[in-house]
Amino acid sequence: MLVDTHCHLDAVEFDVDRAAVAAAAVQAGVGLIVVPAVERANFGAVASVCRDYSGCAAAYGIHPMFVQRACEADLDALRETVLREHPLAIGEIGLDHFAEPRDEAQQAFYFGEQLQIARANSLPVLLHVRRAIDPVLKQLRLCRVRGGVAHAFNGSRQQADEFIKLGFKLGFGGAMTFPRASRIRELAATLPLDAIVLETDAPDIPPEWNDGARNTPEQLPRIAQTLADLRGIAFEEVADATTRNATAVLPGLARIH
């Protein structure tokens, strides 16, 4: 079995065939799918998907690229949703210092507040860290949480080691499948295997063989095979290890059927 630790199955891109996409993932051997929210407006959609499709687990949070249309009442809604829905994690949260326009101070405020929510509820976090790894690490040192996943990791080995020290796993997905992605592939090949989890970020970040098309969780086995090839080990070893890693850092997966 494989675990897709980051898949936006609630996204509008799946409205026309969501049931078929979920069924194809199961058929491919993807037994668990983590579905993170991005703003208060889609908390309900995430909850609905995770009720309707077995093997799906919800996380709730406000994505840094959506904070410009957020308000502090959304944080209250997040607290209420956590108490009512008992999610797997707080996420997708973090910082994004790439997208324009952006308000980095506003991002930092919402990130810090959501880390406090995660800490208060003993929940791990799903982190968005694009072009902002060091500022994210700084906030994590100020507010220690129960680990989590640094999604779509694309930092240095030193930064990877810092996340690992803080109890995090590193998410690898479609970007790793491109031969030109030399830094990501080097990390995937050389990091301790017990630090790695797999993800698709579907419908985004499609793998090399599906470049330009909609990504789906069904692609995860081929992504896992890429990791196995980079490390020179068997697919089964990658599947077993990454599933074990996901359930260790996201212990709520144990209750998902």
Describe the secondary-structure layout.
Blueprint: E1 2-4, H1 18-28, E2 30-36, H2 43-52, E3 56-60, H3 72-85, E4 89-94, H4 104-120, E5 125-128, H5 133-142, E6 148-151, H6 157-165, E7 168-172, H7 182-190, E8 196-198, H8 220-231, H9 235-249
Parallel strand pairs: 1-2, 2-3, 3-4, 4-5, 5-6, 6-7, 7-8
Helix pairs in contact: 8-9
Note down, in words, how this protein is organized.
The chain is of the alpha/beta class. The chain has a single domain (2-255), classed as Alpha-Beta Barrel (TIM Barrel), CATH 3.20.20.140. It contains nine helices and eight strands. The chain has helices at 18-28, 43-52, 72-85, 104-120, 133-142, 157-165, 182-190, 220-231, 235-249; strands at 2-4, 30-36, 56-60, 89-94, 125-128, 148-151, 168-172, 196-198. It has an eight-stranded parallel β-sheet. α8 packs across α9 (235-249). The longest helix is centred in the middle third of the chain and has 17 residues, at 104-120. The radius of gyration is 17 Å and the shape is globular.
